[in-house]
Amino acid sequence: MARERSYQCTVCRWQGTAEPVDAGDAAPCPRCGVYLYPTSWARTWGVALLLVGGTLGFVFAAVRLLR
Fold first, then answer.
1. Residue (of 16, 19, 14, 17) closest to 34 by Cα position
2. pLDDT by residue (tens digit) across 8-63?
3. Residue 43 burial class via C-beta count within 10 angstroms: exposed 0-12, middle 13-18, buried 19 and up
4. Which of 19, 23, 41, 49 holds its CA 20 to 30 A away from the CA of 3?
5. What is the domain extent for residue 33?
6. Is the model's pTM score more than 0.70?
C-alpha cells in the first residue's frame, strides 16, 4: 500500500507528492535528486489556523466584554 506524502524541494522548488523510500519518510526529489522530508501539517496549515483561531477568540472576547 502506497503511503504518499507531500514534499517541497528547497533546491529546485518542486512541490508534490511522492512515496517515501525509508522509515524516516525521506524521498528523493524527482527533478534534482536531493533527499526531501515531508512538509509538516503545522508548516502548511498551522499558521493559518492559528491566525483564524486568534481572530475568532479576539472577536468573541470583544463581544463578551462589550455586553
1. 14
2. 999 999 999 998 888 778 899 999 999 998 877 666 677 788 899 999 999 999 99
3. exposed
4. 49
5. 5-66
6. no
